[in-house]
Amino acid sequence: MANDPQLLKQLGVSSFQQRFPWFGGDLQTLRDTLRTVDLPDETGRRVLVDVPALPTGAAQSGQLLALLDQPNREPRGLVLLLHGLGGSSSREGLRRMGLCLQSAGFAVLRLNLRGADPGREFAGGTYAARCNSDLLPVIARARELAGDRPLLGAGISLGGTMLLNACLSFPGVLDGLFCASSPLDLADCSASIERPRNRVYQRWLLKRLVRQTLADPFGVSATELEELSGDAAPRTIRAFDAAVTAPRWGFNDVEAYYREASPLLHLIAGQDKLPPTLLLQALDDPWVPASAAIHLANALETMSPIGLQFTRKGGHNGFHGRGGCWGDQLAAAWLGSIVDR
User: Fold this and answer.
1) Which residues face 306 on adjacent strands?
2) Exposed e or buried b for every residue in 161-171, given b needs 16+ CB within 10 A?
3) Preceding amide of 118 cis, omega within 30
4) b/e for 210-220, b at 16 or more Cβ within 10 A?
5) What are phi and psi of 177, to 5 degrees?
6) 292 near 265, Cβ under 8 Å?
7) Which of 48, 50, 275, 287 is 20 to 30 A from 304 (CA-CA)?
8) What is the Cβ-side half-sphere exposure of residue 275, based on CA atoms within 13 angstroms?
9) Are strands 324-325 and 320-321 parallel, antiparallel or unpaired?
10) ∠ CA 111-223-114 to the nearest 5 degrees?
11) Computed from CA positions of residues 138, 118, 80, 201, in that sequence, does the dihedral angle turn out positive or negative?
12) Residues contacting 15, CB < 8 A, separation 6+
C-alpha cells in the first residue's frame, strides 16, 4: 500500500494543500515555533508508570509520567501518543494531535519519555530511538487503561521510530499505528541535519538535548559532564549520540546505535510483525530525508500491513493545511478506520 491513491478517498480525507503563508518545507516545519498555537488549559490526568533501570545501569529504575485525556463520549479506543526528539507531552504539535484524536472519539495517553519535562523528576537518564525496556511497561499500562477497546499508537518524528521498534520486537503489542515524519534510517537523518542549511535546526535541537541531560535531578556522570560542557560540548546530533545516547543504552558505539535502532531494514524483513500501520512523509522534510521511506515503499509486499503516504510539501511534522493540521486529521481518520474494521 505505497501511497495508494485510493487511501485518502477511503478515509474521507482530501489531499494536502499548504496553507498561506506557510509555504515550503522550512516554514511548514517552523510554523508552531513562529506562531503561538491556541490550545486549551491542560486537563490530562496524571498516570505514572514504573520503568526499570537502563540496560547499562546508567540510570536507575523510576517512573515515566503520562497524561490521560478522555473524549466527551464513550472512547472508541485508546491512543498512546509519543513526542519526538527534544519534545514532551506539552509541545504544541503533540497536544494538537491529541486534541484531534479526542475529537474523533479516542482516549489519548500522552507519554513523557525518559528525560522529558514534565516528569523529569521521576526518572533519570534520557531516551533513545529504541528504548523497549521503557516502552513495554507503558504499553502494558495503556492496555489496562484501554480495557476491552483497541490500543493504538501514534508517534511524531522519533516517537514513531520508537513505536515501530517496539512493534517489530514484540508483535501484537499495538492494534494499529500512525507515524508522522519518523526517521527510518538514523545515520541518514544525522547526516541530513548536519548539512549547512540545517545549522540553526541542529543548534536548536542540541541546546534542548544538552539542557534536558544536564537537568537530570539524579545527576550525570563525571565523564558525561565533561563531554557536554565548555569547549567539549557536542556540536552535532551524532556527537551527542556518541557521548550520551549510545553508551547509556548499551550500544557499542554510535554506528552500532544508528544501525541497530534504525527500523528500515527490520521493517522490510519483518513486515508481517506490524499491525495496520501508516507512515506519513513529506518529500520536502528538511530533517528526515524521504529516501528511506521511498526505499521501504518499493520493498513492500502486496499484502503488507504497512502503508505510506507521501506529500510533495509539508516539512517536518508540519502539514499545516486548509482547515488545520492535515497530518492530525489523517492520523484520526487512519486510526478510526482500524477501529471501524
Assistant:
1) 277
2) bbbbbbbbeee
3) yes
4) bebbeebeeeb
5) -150, 145
6) no
7) 287
8) 25
9) antiparallel
10) 5
11) negative
12) 8
Domains and CATH numbers, the chain: 5-186+262-340 (3.40.50.1820)
In whole angstroms, what is the distance from residue 103 CA to residue 323 CA?
Answer: 15
pLDDT in tens, 83-121: 999 999 999 999 999 999 999 999 999 999 999 999 999
> Above pLDDT 70, what percent of the chain?
99
User: Alpha-carbon distance 316 to 97, whole Å?
Assistant: 15
Sequence letter at residue 220: V
pLDDT in tens, 122-143: 999 999 999 999 999 999 999 9
Per-residue cell: 261: 535502532
Q: What's the one-letter identity of residue 179?
A: C
The Cα–Cα gap between 251 and 54 comes to 12
Of residues 37 and 239, more confidently modeled: 239
HEC assignment per residue over the chain: CECCHHHHHHHCCCCCCECCCCCCHHHHHHHHHHCCCCCCCCCCEEEEEEECCCCCCCCCCEEEEEEEECCCCCCCCEEEEECCCCCCCCCHHHHHHHHHHHHCCCEEEEECCCCCCCCHHHCCCCCCCCCHHHHHHHHHHHHHHHCCCCEEEEEECHHHHHHHHHHHHCCCCCCEEEEECCCCCHHHHHHHHCCHHHHHHHHHHHHHHHHHHHCCCCCCCHHHHHHHCHHHCCCCHHHHHHHHHHHHCCCCCHHHHHHHHCCHHHHHHCHHHCCCEEEEEECCCCCCCCHHHHHHHHHCCCCCCEEEEEECCCCCCCCEECCEEHHHHHHHHHHHHHHHC
Q: What one-letter code names the amino acid at 238?
A: R
Give the cell for residue 132. 523497549
C-alpha cell at 278: 501508516
